[in-house]
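Q: Make up one entry.
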Amino acid sequence: MSGNTFGTLFAVTNFGESHGPAIGCVIDGCPPGMALSEADIQPDLERRRPGTSRYVTQRNEPDTVQILSGVYEGRTTGTPIALLIANTNQRSKDYGAIAQQFRPGHADYTYWKKYGLRDPRGGGRSSARLTAPMVAAGAVAKKWLAQQYGTRLRGCMTQLGEIEIPFEGWEHVPNNPFFAPMADVSPLQTYMEALRKSGDSCGARLRVTATGVPVGLGEPLFDKLDADIAYAMMGINAVKGVEIGAGFACVAQRGSTHGDAITPAGFASNNAGGVLGGISTGQDIEVSLAIKPTSSILIARPSVDVDNRPVQVITAGRHDPCVGLRATPIAEAMLALVLIDHALRLRAQCGDRGGDNTARA
């Protein structure tokens, strides 16, 4: 199986399965000399980990990260950084009944057809559990970007199922299990309680933004910054749509409105989402993503087994009724990984000139 490494100069190779002994990643290309410890990484893993509220899967994984290599006396050495996260709370027996069946909406069918076998326990390699190592790697990227450019990455939920969530302020996001930017989340709690009792699931819409991004990240043609951001976001489990800046709303805009006017003080708007011609403008990078409803639900659905016989599939076990509830730290991490990779490529190509922030609004 190929396709397990993300990035060019800051390359992250992801390994493990949902119910294996451990998951983790190897980061190749992290610049030397940066202070780094597990304490820099653990907070983001805590934000993503399961079992943190009644509205997410009750699989209780501590997701404690270990740095196995690439750090000496508290500083990165420039050599590969290996990060390990143990799996401690697997319940593989929950998947015995569906080992020979294909769950609708899951990768069971495609894995079986492509590889001739699959690990049914928690989805194996296709599990969203494999986003934890990317969050860990993203924490390393975030620290470097903050030190080099003052870059800050933040995300929030903007829609839960049919409920649109108004943006009241970033300060509310850490104070509720929905990553919602509003003070009163009782409507979301009521919605999730009813959803959980019904045995069904819902989707979500997230927003992730990066401030303090240098001008010049990205290339004009095949390595456009926005193209790589979309690629990264679509690599997150359950993501089915990505928008940069105005996104699909640009269809209803006129050119006189959509094109961001430039003044001596900077850009007057940000419909471009911080990217023009595939290259960062120095404005905030604005990304929105759509996450599909969780495929593992307690409602019986028609499918077939490995012998192509019709079956009714019910997915027992512990699952998120909305996978979007824990996806905000993942989206932040993937955006950070794109930005650090392009920042290192900019420095390699343009030297001291790379990363000029003077055009930032």
The mean pLDDT is 91. The radius of gyration is 21 Å. The chain has one domain: 92-353.
